[in-house]
């Protein structure tokens, strides 16, 4: 199956997972998985949350994000991938002066 995110309506979600500003996403969802092409403007964040029933993979397309992962911090530059396994906690922040863009995949387990 090919997903054309340009044909999926953009959702603008304020304070996603308790974060700051807006989370913009083109999201495909079915019973087993959520796949998103998303962006965060400068200063925007996805709030800290725990993956109790699933995991998440974030692949950075443009810019550099900062991931708070469990008790640490990771820098996520374009071309790199962050994995948050089931049972772990993370968030994503844009501390840069440009919009960051990424894909996120959340498979239900």
Which labels suit this protein?
single chain; 109 residues
Tell me what you see in this structure.
By secondary structure, this protein is mostly beta strands. The radius of gyration is 13 Å and the shape is globular. The two termini are 21 Å apart. The relative contact order is 0.27. The mean pLDDT is 97.
Strand content: over 45%
Q: What does the overall shape look like?
A: globular
Q: What share of residues is helical?
A: under 10%
Report how far apart the termini are: 21 Å
Give the oligomer, counting copies of the same chain as homo and different chains as hetero: single chain
- Strands of the biggest beta sheet: in what spatial order? 1-2-3-10-5-8
User: Largest sheet, if any?
Assistant: 6 strands, antiparallel
Count, helices: 0
Order of helices and strands: EEEEEEEEEE
Q: Uncertain segments of ≥5 residues (pLDDT<50)?
A: none
Q: C-alpha Rg, in Å?
A: 13 Å
| Average pLDDT score | 97
Strand and helix layout:
Elements: E1 10-14, E2 22-29, E3 33-40, E4 45-50, E5 56-62, E6 64-69, E7 72-77, E8 81-84, E9 89-93, E10 100-107
Antiparallel strand pairs: 1-2, 2-3, 3-10, 4-9, 5-8, 5-10, 6-7, 6-9
């Amino acid at each position: 199956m090919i997903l054309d995110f340009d044909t999926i309506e953009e959702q603008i979600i304020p304070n996603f997972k308790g974060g700051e500003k807006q989370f913009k996403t083109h999201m495909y969802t079915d019973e087993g998985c959520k796949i998103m092409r998303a962006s965060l403007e400068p200063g925007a964040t996805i709030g800290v949350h725990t993956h109790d029933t699933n995991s998440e993979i974030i692949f950075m397309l443009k810019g550099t994000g900062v991931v708070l992962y469990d008790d640490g911090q990771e820098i996520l530059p374009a071309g790199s991938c962050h994995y948050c396994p089931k049972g772990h906690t993370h968030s994503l922040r844009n501390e840069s002066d440009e919009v960051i863009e990424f894909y996120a995949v959340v498979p239900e387990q």
